[in-house]
Amino acid sequence: MSTIYDLDLNDLELLLNEWNEPAYRAKQIWQGLYQQLYSSPEQFSNLPNSLRTKLEEEFKFIPFSVRTYLDSSDKSTRKTLFELEDGNLIESVLMRYGDPADEHDSHSMGKPTKQRRTLCISTQAGCAMGCVFCATGQLGFKRNLSSGEIVAQVMYYAQMLKERDEVVSNVVFMGMGEPFHNYDNVMAAIDRLNDADGYKFGARRLTISTVGLVPQIRRFAEEQRQVNLAISLHATDDEERLAIMPVNKRYKIDDVIEACKYYIEKTHRRVTFEWALINGVNDTPEVAHKLAARLKGMLCHVNAIPLNPTQGYNGEATDRQRAQIFKETLEQAGIPCTIRMRRGIDINAGCGQLAGAESK
Fold it and tell me: Helix or strand or coil: residue 224?
């Protein structure tokens, strides 16, 4: 049984035509799903009982069950473990920013920040990229998620937040999986979330993170979407990057940088380069100088975050002082840099920590 979120509005219109239902019913269902945030057929009080019954028989409205969830000790982060219909497990994360308990966060440069509710969404069960410092990469690849399974994660949290009179403010495709390895389904999910008659979630509040699949970066550039692009770089030369990111065997740093320049040229949008600061490996002023030289002249920004621990990798996180020197070195060379907050480390909900496994 497929999930209702796998359909776009046109699919829904065609289906209802087959069912001999009036055309306007499709829009009613669409708005019920994405504006009223209904999660079951019985909530559609504007539909006849016969149509609600048919929807119940034909579609899953929730394509997973919640296996468990964990809240961080400071209550700013919730990680949810979902079990898909076939038994595969995925994790997604809700991060709260700007609550009164927060003095400030790194994005605000020391000033109080407005309230944000950011979702970190998975696009695959497992991951084929094999980055050595990433728990999902250590897990290996299980399968791609359908567009509906991706959308359903957003809707799950949107429904939860609605009960508290809160809304999703940002969505990052940085959970389990490589989004560009599941390109078509991820873009279909984005189109559904972005639809003006539905959820109306602005493209500029969406961010895709990739390890640097060059053909897909170029395809993404051609499509000229307003979605933000983030590149996991983590090293300045091919040998060092290959040691931690096997993808570099296929797509060298030069190729990734050239694809990013093409993206900037086509879209006039900034690229974010993500950098996991590993103590003594890629956090020195010398590395910062090399990175600045590689990125010189590009419309870009570096998001650096001290490495989050995983069981399968022995590297250690940079300390605050070394991170600050790295940031200042980049900025003196003209490359903007933010040291990001580490969130949810105590529940393994940080970047690179999602493994879709029962947490002990």
Answer: coil
Work out whether strand 116-120 and strand 170-173 pair parallel, antiparallel, or are unpaired: parallel
Q: Are residues 164 and 264 in the same domain?
A: yes
Q: Which residues are catalytic?
A: 91, 351
Q: What is the CATH number for 223? A: 3.20.20.70
Domain assignment present for 95: no
53 and 132 co-located in one domain = no
C-alpha radius of gyration, the chain, whole number: 21
pLDDT attached to residue 198: 93
Distance CA 354, CA 153 (A): 15
Torsion sign, CA atoms 204, 206, 210, 215 = negative
Rounded Cα gap, residues 279 and 95, in angstroms: 26
Q: Which residue has the higher pLDDT, 19 or 1?
A: 19
Q: What pLDDT is stored for residue 108 in this prediction?
A: 38
Closest CA to 186 of 153, 157, 162, 137: 153
The domain of 17 spans 4-58
Note the pTM of the prediction, 2 decimals: 0.91
User: Which of 42, 58, 74 is the last residue in one of the domains?
Assistant: 58
pLDDT in tens, 307-335: 877 777 778 888 889 999 999 999 999 99
Of 58, 85, 103, the position where a domain reaches its end is 58
